[in-house]
């Protein structure tokens, strides 16, 4: 299973925010520079994280973003499900018949779906708080530019 960059960046933004003092506002430019992510791409990610309730945005001159809830309440499996566009591990259709010639007897799709479900179940066992147990070290590595 390979996650999209969108999900990777979403998790990294959440991790960064979780290493800040509770309630501390951070501007998008700071995160963009630390992770070397396009500011425009990051704005879309933050918008979606806000719609999902993970991030709070504050407008204005002294505005910024912060976590909308404690890191221990943000489930990693849930974040991945909300940020991935699809979970098709294998494409079971041909372009002509819109159906794989093996679909009536093939077990590949079922096996891969089991693997995907196991992957997500493992992620369900972790929160953002678990990812930042070494908060001080992470904060040191993510120094503001």
Automatic annotation (TrEMBL):
Top-level taxon in the UniProt lineage: Bacteria
InterPro entries per record: TR_Rrf2-type_CS, Tscrpt_reg_Rrf2, WH-like_DNA-bd_sf, WH_DNA-bd_sf
Gene Ontology CC entries for this record: cytosol
Gene3D superfamilies: Winged helix-like DNA-binding domain superfamily/Winged helix DNA-binding domain (1.10.10.10)
Alphabetical keyword list: DNA-binding
GO molecular function: DNA binding; DNA-binding transcription factor activity
Names of the cofactor(s): [2Fe-2S] cluster
Matching Pfam families: Rrf2
Entry-linked NCBIfam families: rrf2_super
Protein name from the UniProt record: HTH-type transcriptional regulator NsrR
Organism encoding this protein: Exobacillus caeni
